[in-house]
Every structure is written in structure tokens, then in C-alpha cells.
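Give me the fold.
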Amino acid sequence: MYNFSSPDSVNGWRNKSAVTEFILLGLSSSQELQLFLFFIFSVFYGAAVLGNILIILTVITNFHLRSPMYFLLSNLSFIDMCQATFATPKMISDFLNQHKTITFQGCMSQIFFLHVFGGTEMVLLVVMAYDRYIAICKPLHYMTIMSLRVCTILVGVSWAIGLVHSGSHLAFTVDLPFCGPNKVDNFFCDLPQVIKLACLDAYVLEILVLTNSGLLSLICFLLLLISYTIILATVHHQVSGGMSKALSTLSAHITVVVLFFGPFIFIYIWPFESFPIDKFISVFFIVFTPLLNPIIYTLRNKDNQKVKTAMRKLKNRFLSSNTATPSH
């Protein structure tokens, strides 16, 4: 690392040799493997986007899905679609390029969107857990407590927290002095790796990043654990079979939480130590999780049989409209 004794020396380095682009080392240097990965990730990305769009359209167009749970599910699908899009198309196109570069502005944008969507989804998962708590533990007051106005406010709060979380990261990152090293050992601009390229002692910044991301993820994870524990403890003392019914209802939620927080916690336990598996965890978090969420919520959760039925109706309506359209 470079050390500077005064702000003037930092500004001097930035004015003379500021980094204007970063080099992304990607997932592999093998040309044959990159062509294979191009095909694989193109398929997964297309499936993730189409799957989440299908859920959004299904919820919007079906009157029977006008409930808080499906309103929140459609918002989760929108976030997953955005999460899959902020870096994956760039990664796919880079498989066909020998020189994988990204502009300074593009790099900062990736950092911003990653933490906006990641932070927003964390809070939204807590909101969805609260929704299930009210539905299972206070069913008679469910529609009163979880009104459309309340759900809209909770979704808005989720986005606000995500924006503040991401903005606090970007506020200090964008002004760091980058004066030489510009190789990021990943397929996108990962904040911890970008900070390490700055020409100063970034120890304090590393602690700030760890505290910011770690605190938000820890609070959300603890709230989720508390919510699910209360739900299971409540139904355990109710009618026979209540536990199995609650587990069936919560299975999709718990699965998504594990898949979302597992990779995130692993990365941020040692955020400034690089491991070979980090790239694959990043791929899972950014590419595969947005695809798995619609699959889990529509297939794994038995209570979402209505979603599958609504999807079939939407498909039949689409096919009928195409058949009825006269050809020219």
C-alpha cells in the first residue's frame, strides 16, 4: 500500500495518474472454458429474468393474488431481477472479450447497485417474515394489520434502508485515490477488492465496510430467526398438526433466507482476505439465487399452488390472444 503524509500529496497523485478504468480478471483465463461459461450463464440469466418477470406479471394480472404475501413476493422478484442484471450481462459479454475492462464510473455503479439491491432484499425478507408471523399467529387481524398501505410503507422502508446502506459505502469509495493498481480479481467490482487497490492505508475503511454490511446483515438475520422461532413456538401449542403446517408454509421462506445469507455471511466474515472459492460464491449470490427464488416460491411452497394455477391461466390467456390475433 501507498502512504501519504498530507491531502495535497493524495490530490497530486490523483491529478497526475488517476485510474480511469479497472481490469476484471473474471472467472477463468481459458478460452474454451469461457465459451462454455458464456452459454451456461446466458441460459441461467435468461431464466432468472424471465422467471421473475413471470411472477410479477402473474401477481399483477390475477385478482386472487391480491394479498400482502404475493405483493411482497412480486417486490422480491423485482429486486432479484435487478440483482441478476447489474453485473451478469457484463460478465457474459466479457467471456467473448480478451480485455475485460470497466470504467471507473461503471465500477462505482456496480458497487452502488450491489449494495442497494442486497440491502433492500435483506430488509424485505424481514418484512416477509413479519407478514408470515401475522398470518399464522394473528390470522383474524391479518388483513387489518397488513393492509396495502402498510405493505407499501414497509417496501418503501426496505428501499430507503438499501439506498442509505449503499450510499454510505459509495460516499467514501468514490473519492479514494486510485493511482496505479487496477486489477480486480473477480467478474465485477467487489467493494473489498476495490478498496484494497486504493493508494493509501485502507484499514479504517475496511473496518467501516465490515461494520456497515455486517451490522445490517446481522440485525436482519437475528430478526428473521426471532420471527421464525416465535411462529414455530406459537403453532406448537396450538392444534395438532400445526407444526407441520407451519413448516410447510415457512419452508420456502427459510430456504431463501439460507441461500441468501449463507454466501453473504461467508464473504463478509473475512471480507478483505481473498479465497479461491470467493468467485464461485459471488456467482451463486448474483446469478443463481435470483433464479432459485422464483423456483422455490412457486414449486417448493405448497401454499403457493395458487401461483402455479395463476401462471397456467396467464399462459393460456397469452396463447389464446395469439391464436385470436388475425395474421396479415
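The beta strands are 21-24, 101-103, 183-184.
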